[in-house]
Amino acid sequence: MRHFKINSLCICILLFVAACVPSVIYIDTIGTMPGEEPGYEKGVSACYATVSDGTMLLAGGCNFPETPAANGGAKRYYKGIYSASCDGSALQWKKVGELPEASAYGVSLQYGASLVIAGGMNENGASDKVYIVEAASDGCNIRCLPSLPCTVDNASGAVCGNYIYVVGGNADGRPSSRAFALNMDDVAAGWCELPSFPGRGRVQPVCVAAAGALYLWGGFTPAGDDGDAVVHCDGAKYNLASGEWSLLPTIVDENNQPLTLSGGAAVATADGRIFAAGGVNREIFEDAISGKYNCVPKNEYMRRPIGWYRFNDRLLGFDATEEKWEILTRKAAYARAGAVLATDGENLYYVGGELKPGIRTPEIKEFSFLIK
Questions:
Q1: How far apart are the C-alpha atoms of 91 and 32, rounded to whole Å?
Q2: Looking at the predicted structure, is the pLDDT value of residue 31 above 70?
Q3: Any idea what the Cα angle at residue 219 is, between residues 340 and 157, rounded to 5°?
Q4: At residue 370, does pLDDT exceed 50?
Q5: The domain containing residue 41 runs over which residues?
Q6: Cβ atoms of residues 80 and 98 within 8 Å
Q7: CB 51 within 8 A of CB 344
Q8: From CA 372, how far away is CA 368, in angstroms rounded?
Q9: What angle do CA 124, 167, 263 make, to 5 degrees?
Q10: How far is the first Cα of the chain from the last one, in angstroms, to the nearest whole number?
Q11: Count of domains in the chain?
């Protein structure tokens, strides 16, 4: 067997011609979270990360570094910005700067070689701020982009051409179906609001851009005046040319049962392939956010072993041309929520996240392919 890095064309060949070239996904732990900020080394979720030109940028996130969340611990937010070379060796982190304020739960996007952070929140509340972080020889440069029209947290987004999109999440503290776009060629014009996606607002969905469209899946809606709590398993598609939304069918697992990507991570490669991993279990999470607690008593919800929560342990691929999902592989390494999935065009990187409610992982994984 031999392990090697592949480009986007090779990814397509391996996925679509598997019968001719047997392959499996190869997972490698390439490092852990840096330790410059006390507590960060224990792992964070809802952070910001991107990989470009062989360099990973990592920033922000949150965890419970002292007392576990199950015991009423305080959540800590972080502001450090870190850089490391993804050259095949273990990550060697260097702190290159700090965000203007500690932040997590914002939208993490790659624009060119830069990291864009839109919205987010900390112990003081949600934010409407948008930053672009650019690596520099002596550290990093941070520029402010126009603020969003409202505070946004737990949303998702995508980049298509010179446009940055932010979709869903909480807008001014309420579950939202709103979508916003920023033309990076005309930043002074600020954000414009697109048509809202159909249905109720979705918190913690995933969103990617491919084949001239925005694709949105998963997310959850707490109970409110518009209905009971629900964890979504379907999706919606926004045609960038026509400016219209259409519904996408429910994602299903190997047993044809509904599968949610709520709290999961997704990324699109330059060749139009979409990958998704992780997310909560629909039945268990919906039972909890509804307040029913039929699966487990409320006071025990955060005290069960990791495997009980049945986070999604699948890596999925979506063909935007056929609009079909494929389960590529199942491994415990994918079973995270609140992680970031990034790509350098050759490999996928799975950064941070939680293994169960309140418990983070410091591990950073690299996904590539192993040829038999």
A1: 7
A2: yes
A3: 50
A4: yes
A5: 2-371
A6: yes
A7: yes
A8: 13
A9: 70
A10: 5
A11: 1
8 Å CB contact between 65 and 323: no
Does residue 193 carry a pLDDT above 80?
yes
The mean per-residue pLDDT over the stretch 57-73 comes to 97
In 3D space, the residue among 290, 344, 264 whose CA is nearest the CA of residue 54 turns out to be 344
Question: Quick one: pLDDT at residue 173?
Answer: 97
Q: How many CB atoms lie under 10 A from the CB of residue 258? A: 14
Residue 184's closest CA among 146, 241, 238?
A: 146
Contacts with 52 (C-beta within 8 Å, 6 or more apart), sequence order = 110, 112, 113, 114, 344
- pLDDT score recorded for residue 3: 39
Residue 297 has which token pair? 């008593």
CA-CA distance, 176 to 159, in Å (whole number)? 20
In this prediction, what percent of the chain has a pLDDT beyond 90?
83
pTM exceeds cut of 0.85: yes
Q: How many CB atoms are closer than 10 A to CB 96? A: 20
Span 23-48, mean pLDDT? Answer: 92
CATH number of domain containing 235: 2.120.10.80
